Amino acid sequence: MTSSVLNAIYKRRSIREFTEKEISSEQLYEIVKAGIWAPSGLNNQPWRFVIIKDLDVKEQVAQQTR
């Protein structure tokens, strides 16, 4: 395993404080692309990705997950 991979693993942190700064579509797609490439058990890739930009829709989804 390369040192850059190990470095990324060791330095990974969860962020629980967010800003109101908007993320560009290019950045969002790059994040989703990274998620698609992430390994999964038996390579079954069970995930689904949805990008929601509308604040009202975000709040409605948040209400359903509380």
Write the layout of secondary structure elements.
Elements: H1 3-11, H2 25-37, H3 55-64
Give the tags.
66 residues, mainly alpha, 3 helices
Can you walk through the features of this model?
It is a single chain. By secondary structure, this protein is mainly alpha-helical. The protein is built from three helices and no strands. It is extended. The termini are far apart. The mean pLDDT is 88.
In angstroms, what is the radius of gyration? 15 Å
Fraction of helical residues: 40-55%
Structural class comes to mainly alpha
How far is it from the N-terminal to the C-terminal residue, by CA?
39 Å
Q: How many H/I helices?
A: 3
- The outline comes out as extended
Tally of strands: 0
Main beta sheet strand tally, sense and closure: none
Strand content: under 5%
User: Which blocks of ≥5 consecutive residues have pLDDT under 50?
Assistant: none
**What is the element string, with H for helices and E for strands?**
HHH
Mean pLDDT: 88
Short structural summary:
Helices cover 48% and strands 0% of the residues.
